[in-house]
Amino acid sequence: MYNIVWLIPLLPLIGFIFLGLVGKKLKSESLIGTIGSATVGISFLIAFLMFLKMLSTPLEAPVIVNVYKWISAGYFSINIAYQIDQLSILYTMIVTGVGFLIHIYSIGYMHGDRGFFRFFAYLNLFIFMMLNLVLANNFLLTFLGWEGVGLSSYLLIGFWYDRKFQGIRIIWTGHAANKAFIMNRIGDFGFLIAMFMIFVNFGTLEYTELHNILVSNTISYQYSSAIGIITILLFLAATGKSAQIPLAVWLPDAMAGPTPVSALIHAATMVTAGIFLVARNSLLFALAPSTMNVIAVIGISTAFFAATIGTVQNGIKKVLAYSTVSQLGFMFAALGVGAYTAAVFHVMMHAFFKGLLFLGAGSVMHGMHNEEDIKKMGGLQKYMPITYKTFYVASLAIAGIPLFAGFFSKDEIMWQTYNHGSAIAWFVLALSAFMTAFYMFRLVNLVFHKEERFDHKHIHPHESPKTMTIPLIILSVLSALGGFLGIPYILGFWFSHNPNFLDNFLEPVFKDANVVLGFSENHQLGGSEYLFMLISVTIALFSIWTAYKWYYYDDKWSVPRKLVLKFKGIYKLLWNKYFVDEVYFTTIVDPLITSSREGLWKFFDVKIIDGLVNGLASITTFFGNQVRKIQTGFAQTYAIVMLAGAIILISWLFFGL
Amino acid sequence: MIPLIITLLLPLISSLLILFMNKENVKLIKYFTLISSLITFLISLFLLFNFNNTNPDIQYYINVTWVSSLDAGFRIGLDGMSLLLVMLITFISPIAILSSFDSIKTREKEYYFMILLLQFAMVGVFTALDTFLFYIFWELILIPMYFIIGIWGGKNRLYATVKFFIFTMVGSLFMLVAIIWLGNYVGNEILKTGFTTDYLKIKEVANLIPLNYQNWLFWAFAISFFIKVPLFPLHTWLPDAHTEAPTAGSVILAAILLKMGTYGLIRFNLEFFTSASIANASLISIFAVIGIIYGALVAAIQTDIKKLVAYSSVSHLGFVVLGIFSMTAIGIQGAIIQMVNHGLSTGMLFLLVGIIYERRHTREISEYGGIARIMPVYATFFAIAMFSSVGLPGLNGFVGEYLTLIGAFTSPILNSWGYAIAASTGVIFAAVYLLWMYQRVFFGTVDNPSNLNLKDLSKREWAFLVPIVIFIVWIGLHPSTFTNISENSTRKLVNKIENVKFGITPYPELLKNSNLKTNSNQINNNKIGK
Q1: Which member of A74, A177, A189 has the closest CB to residue B329?
Q2: pLDDT (0 to 100) of residue A135
Q3: How distant is the Cα of B31 from the closest Cα of chain A, in angstroms?
Q4: What is the interface pTM, i.e. ipTM, of the complex?
Q5: Are B291 and B321 in contact (CB under 8 A)?
Q6: Between the ranges A474-478, B446-450, B518-522, where is the mean pLDDT highest?
Q7: Using CB atoms, which residue from A74, A182, A600 is nearest to B333?
Q8: Where does A133-218 show beta strands of DSSP type E?
Q9: Sign of the CA dihedral A560, A562, A565, A570?
Q10: Which residues of B touch A188 (CB under 8 A)?
Q11: What is the DSSP letter of B198?
C-alpha cells in the first residue's frame, strides 16, 4: 500500500500538465473544475487509506519509497524519495483534504473568469509542490516543494495581473506577487546554507539518516554550535514561508490573490510549511536549545504584534491575514517550547477554521461585488445565512470557545508555553488570544449584524451557489468537532476511551525529541491546567462580550471611536502596521537600488572600466596621430632626418657618445 | 570517429556551398542552412549514443599530422565535458538559424554563410586537442562574430563590435605567447622531443613546469578565458555586444561563446597548470563571487530588457567559475551542467527578447506593460525561461547553481564557507531583477496603444522554443542523463588535482582505466615543487 505513495503527488501533477496544455480548449468550466478537483480528491483518498492502515497496524519507523536518483555528482547523491510516517500522512491529508474542498469552492467562485483553466492548473501545481514538500525524504526534495509552493503562490497572487491592489509601493497585484516571492527567497537563502552545512557535518540530506545519526549520539551533538547555526538558518527559512518576524510583511499583501488562494495557500497549508520544517526536524531543533528560545520569542512576538494590527484594520481579508500571521506565531511559540504535537494540532485546526473564514470572506465578497471594506457591509446575516452561520462557527473556533476546534489546540499551546516556557510567555499569548477573539467578533458584528451600510442601488447581496456553500458547511463541521482529535489528558476521563488521539498518533515522530527535551511520557494531571483552561475561556468570553458591547449594542461605535481619538499615535502605528514596509524600503531596498545604479553601473562599469579601455584606445589613437605627422611626404624632410640619424648612429658607434 | 568529422566539417562545407548560391534566392539559402544544421544535429546524436560514459578519457580521437616541424596536428576528440558542449552547439545552432528567418532582411547570403562558419569554428574549439589548432579555431570565431554584430546589429553596432573584437583579441594574444612558450618548454626541456602542440602530450607533463613559470602561463591562458567568460571586472564588452548583436548572434554568444572561456579554464588551466590553479583558486573565486552579486545588482537597474539579460549572464557565469575553482567533482560537474543550463535559459531569454523586438522595435521595459493579456503564450514561455534562470528547483538552473554552490562549500582547496555563502545571495538577487522586469513588462494593463495589436507566437516561434523547454524540464527533473556523461572525466581531473594538492586519490575506481603514468608524474612534481 505505502509503495504507491508517488501517486499522491503525481495525480495533481498530471492535472496541472493536462489543464495547462489543453485547458484553454476545454470549453466547459465544470469539466475543468471536475478534473482539477478529482486529482486532489483521489490523492486524498489514497492518503486516507494509508492513514487507516497506519491506525490498524501502527508504524514504528518511517517507510521510505525511492522513486529515482535525482541529482548526483562526486560524493553528492540525492533521490526523489518519499517518506511515509504519521507526520507526513497527517499533513498530506490536510493539504489534499482542505485542498479538495477549496477546489470545489473555486468552481463556484471563479465562475466566468477568463483564466478559469489557468486557475485550476495553478492550484493543482500548488498541491503537487506542497505534497513534495511534506512527503519528501530529504531536504532537497522538500526544498523543491518549498520553492515550488512559492512559485504557485507567486502565480496565484498575481493571477489577476491587470488588477490594482493597494499597499506600500504596491500598485498592481503583480507587485504583491513579487514581494511574496522575494521575501521567501530571503528565507530560502537560509534553507540553502543550512543544507550545505548539514551535508558537510553529517554527510547526508536524508531525514531518516540524519535522525539516526543524531539519535546514536545525542550527547555529543547537544549544544553543538553547528547544529545551532543549522537550526537558526532553517528557522530563517521558516520565517519566510510562515510569515514570521522579520519576514512577515509579504503575507497581508498576498491577499491580492483570489480568495480561494488566500484560503488554501495563505492560510491553511503553505504558510504552515515552516512549522512542518521544524516538526520534521524535531530532534535537530531539540538539540539546539538556544534556537528553540529564539523560535519561541519570535513566535510569541509575532502572535502579539500581528494581533494588535488585526484589531484596527477594515479590510475583511486584511484582518484575516493578520490573524493568520498571529496564529502562526502561536504555532511557533508551541514549537519553541518543544510542544511539537500542540503545534501540529493547531496547524490542523487552523487549516479548518481559517480556511473556513477565508472562504466565508470570499463568499461575502462574491455576494458584495468584491467589496472588502467591512465599514461598508453590515446586516448580511439575512442575505447569506449559510455563510453567516459557518463564519460564526469558525469565529467561535478561533476565539477558543470550549468544544470548538481552536479551544483544544490553542489551550494546549498556552498551557505548554506556561508549563515548559514562562509565565510572561503565557501572558503575552493570553493577550494575543484576547485580541484574536475581539477582532473576530468585531468582524462578525460589522459584516453580518445590524445596520446595512452598503449601497443598495449597486450592491445586491446574495448567498453563494452550492459549490461554495457545501465546502463551507463541511469545514464548519470540522471546525466545530475537529478539536476532539486532541482532547487534553486532564479532560481524558470524560473520554476515557482514547484521550488525546493526536498526541498518541504522533508519538513515534516526536519521541526522540521529547527524550532530549526531558519531557516524560507520563502526562501529569495537575490542577493548575484546569485553572489555566478556565482563565482562557474567561478571556475569550470577555473579549467577545467587549466586541458585542462596542459594535453590536452601540450603534455609534462610540467606545472605539473615542479610543482612536485618545490614542492617535498608537492607532496610527497599528493602522500603518508599525511602518515595517516603509523601514525596509528606506533602509534596504532604496539604498541598494541607488548604489547599484549610480555606484556600480554608471560609475564603476561606465566610468572606470570602460573609461580605462576607451582611455587606452584614445592614447593609442593620439600617439598614432602624432607619429603620422612625421610622414610628411616631403623627400627633403626624410633626407634630413636620415642624415641626422646617421650622424647620431655613427657618433654613438665610433665615439661612444 | 566519422560522426565527429561530419559534425565538425559539415557546417564548413555547407557554408562554402552557400557561396555558390544566388543571393536572390533567399528561401533556398535559409532552408539549406537550416537543414544542414539539423542534419549536423542528427549526426551529432551518434556521438552521444556511442559515447562510453564509464571511460574518463578522450574518445573518438583523431590525429592527423599537419605541420610536422611544430608537431602541430589536426588532433580532435571528445571527453564527457566537450561532448555535452558540442551537443549544445548542434542543438542551439538550428534554433538560432530558425529564429533569424524573419529578423534578418539584408544580405542574407552573407549572414547564413557567417552563421555556418561560426558553427564550424565553435565545434572546432570544443573538439581541438592541439594547442595550435585550438588557437586557430579560437581566433576564427572572431571573424564571423565580428561581422554578425557589425553588419546585422543595432544602432551602436560598430562601437560594440570593435569593443568585442579588441577585448577578445588582447586576451588571445597572451594565450598565443603562452602556447608557444609552453610548446617549447614541454617539448625541449621536459620531454626533449622537440617543440610540440599535442594537447595530450602536454597534459601529461605540464604540471612538471616549476610553479613560478606555471603561474605566468596560467595567467596568460586565464586572462584570455576570463575576458571571454566574462569574469568581473573584464565584463564590460558583454552588455554592449549582446545588446547590439542580432538575436541569433546574442543567442550564440550567450549559449556557446561564453562557454569557450569556462571550457578553456577546465581544459587548459586546470588540466595543464594544476598547481598554479590550486594556488590561484581563492583569488579567482573571490572575483567569481563579486561577479555573481555585481551582475545581479547591475542587471536589476537596467531599463533595456536585453541589457538586463546580458548582465544576468555575468552573474550566472560567476557560478560556473566558482564551481570550476572549487576544484571538487561536485563543483566542476555543477559548472559543466550550468554551462549547458545557461546556454538554454539565457539563450531562450534572448530568443524571447528578439521575438518582441521584431514586433515592436524597442527593448525599453517602460514601453511595455500588460503584455500577458495580449500575448499569453509568449508570457508563459517567458515565465518558464525566467524561472529556469532564477534557479527554481525542478528546472535546470537549480541543478547547476546548487552543485556549484555545494562544491564551493565543501571544497578542500577553497577551504572556506564564505564563498558559497556570499554567492548564495545571488539566488535572492536573481529573483529580484527578473521578477521585477517581468512585472513591468507583462503585468498591469496595456497602457501603450502600440502594444494592443501584438501577435502572439507564430508556429515557427513555437517550433524553436518548445525543444528548449523540454530540455529545461528534463535537466531539472532528471539531470543525471546529462551529468553522467561528464561524471567520469570530471572525477579523473579531480583525482589529479587532489593528488597534486593532498597526495590522495578521491575516486580510485578510475585508476584502473587511466594510465598510471600520470600518477608517478605528479609524485615527481611534488618533489620538484619542494
Answers
A1: A74
A2: 95
A3: 30
A4: 0.90
A5: yes
A6: A474-478
A7: A74
A8: 164-167, 170-172
A9: negative
A10: 427-428
A11: B
